[in-house]
């Protein structure tokens, strides 16, 4: 009887523990991609939206509208360089951002990981 109770308690503990820990593990991209998500969320989401569709809260007021990163057409050509140049120099109405090369690479890695379909 004690053994059954111990097993039930252990199983319950594991279920609660894994239920709280697994989502944190699976939502972590790792390294640069995590840094890129943090930067994207703080710099880009307001216009481009959380899903990169160009539908952020400020998008309706912008002309031209923000780019849709989820579009396969967006990813044609050398987009890494174009994205980096746009982040560094801005592109009306988008302002330039003073970010390091590593931070820009992290944003691009996050965008490719999240929005680019294979």
What are the defining features of this structure?
118 residues; mainly alpha; Cytochrome Bc1 Complex, Chain D, domain 2; 5 helices; 0% strand; elongated
**What is the CATH architecture term?**
Orthogonal Bundle
**Based on helices, strands and strand pairing, what is the structural class?**
mainly alpha
**Could you state the CATH homologous superfamily?**
Cytochrome c-like domain
Number of strands: 0
Low-confidence stretches: 17-28
In total, the number of domains comes to: 1
Mean pLDDT: 83
Distance between the termini: 54 Å
Q: The CATH topology is what?
A: Cytochrome Bc1 Complex, Chain D, domain 2
Shape: elongated
| Percent range for β-strand residues | under 5%
Classify the helix fraction into a percent range. Answer: 55-70%
Write the element-wise H/E pattern from the N-terminal end onward.
HHHHH
Profile the largest sheet. none
Gyration radius from CA atoms, angstroms: 20 Å
């Amino acid at each position: 009887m004690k053994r059954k109770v111990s097993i039930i308690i252990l199983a319950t503990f594991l279920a609660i523990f894994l239920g709280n820990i697994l989502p944190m593990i699976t939502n972590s991209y790792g390294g640069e991609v995590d840094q890129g998500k943090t930067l994207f969320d703080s710099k880009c989401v307001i216009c481009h939206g959380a899903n990169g569709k160009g539908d952020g809260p400020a998008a309706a007021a912008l002309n031209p509208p923000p780019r849709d990163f989820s579009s396969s057409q967006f990813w044609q050509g050398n987009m890494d360089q174009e994205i980096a140049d746009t982040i560094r120099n801005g592109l009306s109405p988008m302002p330039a951002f003073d970010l390091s090369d590593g931070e820009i690479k992290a944003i691009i890695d996050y965008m490719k990981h999240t929005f680019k379909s294979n």
